[in-house]
Amino acid sequence: xxxxxxxxxxxxxxxxxxxxxxxxxxxxxxxxxxxxxxxxxxxxxxxxxxxxxxxxxxxxxxxxxxxxxxxxxxxxxxxxxxxxxxxxxxxxxxxxxxxxxxxxxxxxxxxxxxxxxxxxxxxxxxxxxxxxxxxxxxxxxxxxxxxxxxxxxxxxxxxxxxxxxxxxxxxxxxxxxxxxxxxxxxxxxxxxxxxxxxxxxxxxxxxxxxxxxxxxxxxxxxxxxxxxxxxxxxxxxxxxxxxxxxxxxxxxxxxxxxxxxxxxxxxxxxxxxxxxxxxxxxxxxxxxxxxxxxxxxxxx
Length: 300
Hints:
This protein is mostly helical. It has 16 helices and two strands.
């Protein structure tokens, strides 16, 4: 009977030793798995890097430049403190849109689409050239071209001032884009009435005109009565007006916004809903803001 009793006590001692080692190992394991310097995401699983990327993208798309380090930090803190809410995003976006840089970017994008990226310096140079010719003709007594010179100067003045006028609400969304069709540069790029109509359809609607649209549009640009987009006109000015107020004009802006900001085509539903919204409020910056607030754009 002594052997079983000794065996029993030996087993108890081994068990106690095993339990002691297991606890010490578990404690050691727990200590080893504490990782220092591993900061948790700032809000709801969204990392600082993601928020920084969102801010950087906004600045490039809306301001035409990358944000400074201080701009990243201040905007990131504001977004985090407000839990990345749509209202907080709206505030940040609106602050960028309230700057001249935002409207300069709008001009640059439209200029690239319509007039081969002519900038303010190119416009000023052309005005200077026409003014100089105007002056020398006046000295020589050649007055036959004065009306033409003044016509071209007036169109350039409108184009030069259209960005500021749009920014302060003195020019409508429709007038902003009409100015890019109604100028010497656009005429030279799309010489002839037929090419002018084709260019306008391509630049505004991202499509070619139908045969009927081409005939009627050309007829109107040439100064003859015609019917286009269910509206009558008989001049180039009428064509430009009609081309920038119909539903397809707003669809073209939706196509532009989705391509620029979301890097994809709008779906049929997005195209229809976006055009209806723009036609109602004529507020392209607000439409851009709506896209920039989406998770698709932000990446979180």
